[in-house]
Amino acid sequence: MANTQTAEVNAGGTTTRAHLPSNKDMWVFVLGDLVIFSSYFIIFEIYRHQQRQTFLSAQQHLSLSIGVVNTLVLLASSWFVAQSVQLTRAGEYERAMRLTVGGGLCGVVFILLKAYEWSTKIGHGLTFGSNDFFMFYYMLTGVHLFHVALGLVFLGVVFFELRNPKLRRVSMVETGATYWHMVDLLWVVIFALMYVMR
Amino acid sequence: MDLRPQWISLWLLPFFGAILLVVFVAFPGFLPPMSPQMTADQVAQFYAQNTTMIRFSMIVFNLCAIMMIPFFMVIVVQIKRMSLPSHVLAYSYLAAAATGATLFAIADIFWLIAAYRPGRDPQLILLLNDMAWLIFIAPVGAFVVQNLCLALAVYLDTRPQPIFPRWVAYFSVLTAVAMTPAACAVIFKSGPLAWDGAISFWLRIGAFAINIAVMFFVVRGAISRQAAEQAVETESPATVTDAEVTR
Amino acid sequence: MTTTKARAITYVWIILSAITLVSWFLGPARVAGPAVASVPITVAVLAMAFIKARLIIGYFMEVRTAPAWLRLSTDAWLVVLWGAVLAIYLW
Amino acid sequence: MSAVSAAPVVTENARPAWTRRPKIDQWICWWTIPIFYNLFGLIFVVLTRVMPPPRPDITPEQIVAFFETHSLTIRIGFALLMFFIGFASVANGLIALQIKRMSVSPVFAYAYIGALVVGGLPGCLLPAFAFVAGAFRPDRDPQIMVMLYDWCLLSFVGSLGCFCTQNMVLALAIFLDKNDILPKWLAYMSIWMIVTELLASPVFIFKSGPLAWNGSISFYVGTAVFVVWEFAIIRLLYVAIKNQSPTEQIQD
Q: By the CB < 8 Å criterion, does D9 face chain B?
């Protein structure tokens, strides 16, 4: 299904054909989702600009260590999924399947860590309505969690695609990978804006 | 194809229709219809005086009104038998019938809430009564579209012997037109278009009742023709050219 | 596919993890006392996040070797988002 | 579907030409959708001022004043809605038919009909009646007026699970479909609709800010995504009907 246009791409002098990973439909979804999330980020920035001090003091309550560990977990899962795409292209379906499962497990770890982090915050009485910062915190991480869960469904589809010898279409594996990388990309942005930015 | 489910669904209509007619008369608020201009105290007093009859009639309405759904689904099945380009009108008819039935159930609940504690603050009784009447009378869109879908289906039916006779299309449109002005019941508190007015109440409910009654005989005819067709088919399947798969 | 692509992905992953760890030290939670806004740290953080995002898009999503329309739209998205965030922050 | 090609009887030519155009019933149903949504805009934006929604954090006096000043237009607007809401069932039937044309089992089509029928009532009609009850007698006790005001706007802007189900069912049908009736990117767009529905749920918690019922995220971003989705599905239904061969056999 991957319609590789023949636009010339001179990557390092050798003109290789441009290859569109996955398919146009998935990229409509990814680009649209990025635009929608950008609107959330920009609205968050506007509110942050208006209530600078409350956001700064509220941000102190966030545990940066869990945030960093979560980022590393998602980056690792992206590495797993990216490698499984390379292996699928190389025809090593067994290893590709194992790496996809690895990526999925990292996703589950991410969800568990996030659930733990939420429970500690709520334990300290910092809930959805306590102030604007935590409203955005739970909203953004909540919507991102929904995307992670949906990503696990996509990785499951990729897993069964690889397991079935009659299928094993590279474009399907690429579709799952592209979506999973988008989830990782969105988390990187959320991590920067919420945890680290001052 | 066993036609008994259709016969049963058809005969559910007159049985429960009769019950609904009785309770329609029994409900003190319908004959004559309560006026939107009654003050909160008058409405509260009305509920206080007629509590038992209101509860009885509305409980029966609650139980029996939904029994008309199988009848509407028989019409959906008959529409699917018509030779139309597609079944879109059957599905639209089904969706519209479901919407209309739900609305009446919701209106009925409001009456029952009001009658549950007549001693409530008259303002609350007035609000519940308003909601009950408005939801009962105003939302004609569902039944109008239901009839328009049926009319279009009958009109487009290209069977040599149409499932429903052609005048049913014009009759459905006529019913739809007769019921449409009742939507203005949300605007006026007096005059013919108010919820107790000649157009919004009598014309609307009259058109609805007549439509249901007439459609009963039309659908009965359609099912009996279907039975006749099947009888011919089973007797001499070879000679039957009409290879139509009957539902 | 040669292993250069696989190796490149691993390198990129290492760089991304490194940048993440660097931002750990810049984080506010480690600063004792009342939180204070600091423009240079934030600009550094936003720049690092921009680089991380571009690396993920380029190497993981393989947009580097994708058709031009996709490269342009992802780059445009990056510039608009981070530009707006920076502008609102500094405004 | 019984595409019987019985010999047309002599009275056939008595029927006007338009009735013999192919797929005429689907075209008529399709034409009701853009008309319905333009009227939808007229009713909700111009007449009843429900969209963009008035602020949730205003005093009861202001709420009563709102009902008094707009009483007539609210009633006229919702009188129109009483009639035109029925055509939502036609759009429902048309989309259900396209799902029936797909290579998936009809369970998704019937689930779609059920979900959209449920959605039409608490999502559109009951909030209308709450506003009408308010506009019908603005001289009610202010506390009741505030309750009607909240009832309408919460029920209208707030999230409804049935729209999540409807979009999920549509997305699954399109993903699993091999006949390519509707393109895959519409399935992905339906996932956005589910996300915006999730983001409309905090409406029941907040009275101000981006997640209130007039919030920039819950309402405006959600409405923007809905408008994009609506234009897309109207366009794609047109293409789907046009590409359909009149003699196509659809599973019953």
A: yes
For A104, A145, A149, A152, the CA distances from A109, given in Å and listed in that order, are: 9, 12, 12, 12
pLDDT by residue (tens digit) across B34-65?
Answer: 999 999 999 999 999 999 999 999 999 999 99
Which DSSP helix (H) or strand (E) runs through A11? Answer: strand A8-11
Among C14, C81, C86, the residue to mutate for chain A (most A Cβ within 10 A):
C81
Residue D202 contacts A where some CB pair is shorter than 8 Å = yes
**Phi and psi for A15 in degrees, rounded to 5?**
-80, 110
Pairing relationship of beta strands A14-17 and A8-11 according to DSSP bridges: antiparallel
What's the pLDDT band for D9 if we cut at 50, 70, 90? very low
Note every long-range contact of D197-202, with CB atoms under 8 Å and residues 24 or more positions apart, other chains counting.
D197/D159, D197/D160, D197/D161, D197/D163, D197/D164, D197/D167, D197/D222, D198/A142, D198/A143, D198/A146, D198/D159, D198/D164, D199/A139, D199/A143, D199/D159, D200/D157, D200/D158, D200/D159, D201/D158, D201/D159, D202/A128, D202/A135, D202/A139
The rounded distance, in Å, linking the Cα atoms of B172 and B145 is: 10
- CA dist A78 and B216 (Å) reads 64
Chain D residues lying within 8 Å of A25, measured CB to CB: 183-185, 187-188
- Contact criterion met (CB < 8 Å) for D209 and A39: no
pLDDT at B241 over 60: no
Q: How far is CA D174 from CA A29, B170, D98, in A?
A: 14, 38, 10
B41 contact partners, CB below 8 Å, separation of at least 6: B122
Which pTM was predicted? 0.88
Confidence band for A167, pLDDT divided at 50, 70 and 90? confident
d(Cα A73, Cα D70) in Å, to the nearest integer?
55
Per-domain residue ranges for chain B? Answer: 4-231
Residues B197/B34, Cβ–Cβ less than 8 Å: no
Smallest CA–CA separation between A71 and chain C, in Å?
Answer: 7
pLDDT at residue A1, as a whole number: 37
Complex-level ipTM: 0.86
Look at the block and give the residue holding tokens 């008959």: B78
Q: Provide the shortest C-alpha distance from residue D221 to chain A (in Å).
A: 8
Domain spans, chain C: 4-90
Q: Which domains does chain A have, with CATH numbers?
A: 22-196 (1.20.120.80)
Q: In this complex, does chain C touch chain A, defined as having at least 3 beta-carbon pairs under 8 Å apart?
A: yes
User: Are the beta carbons of D185 and A43 separated by less than 8 Å?
Assistant: no
* Cross-chain CB nearest to D89 (options B84, B92, B153): B92
Taken in order A43, A45, A49, A52, is the CA torsion positive or negative? Answer: positive
Sequence-ordered list of residues with C-beta below 8 angstroms from that of D187, at least 6 positions apart, any chain? A25, D170, D171, D172, D173, D174, D175
A94: exposed, middle or buried (Cβ count in 10 Å: 0-12, 13-18, 19+): exposed
Question: Which sequence spans correspond to the domains of chain D?
Answer: 23-47+56-243
CA separation for the pair D242, B231 (Å, rounded): 39
Distance in angstroms (rounded) separating the CA atoms of residues B102 and D121: 8
CA D3 – CA B82 distance, rounded (Å): 9
Q: How far is A25 from chain D (nearest CA, A)?
A: 5
With contact defined as 3+ CB pairs under 8 Å, the chains touching B are D
Q: Does B106 touch chain D (CB under 8 A)?
A: yes
Contacts of D202 in chain A (CB under 8 A): 128, 135, 139
C-alpha distance from residue A88 to each of B44, B74, B98 (Å) = 75, 54, 50
Any D CB within 8 A of A29 CB? yes
Percent of chain D with pLDDT over 70: 94
A contact test, residue of C16, C48, C75 with most A CBs within 10 A:
C16
The size of the A-D interface in CB pairs under 8 A is 56
User: Token match 């929604």: residue?
Assistant: D53
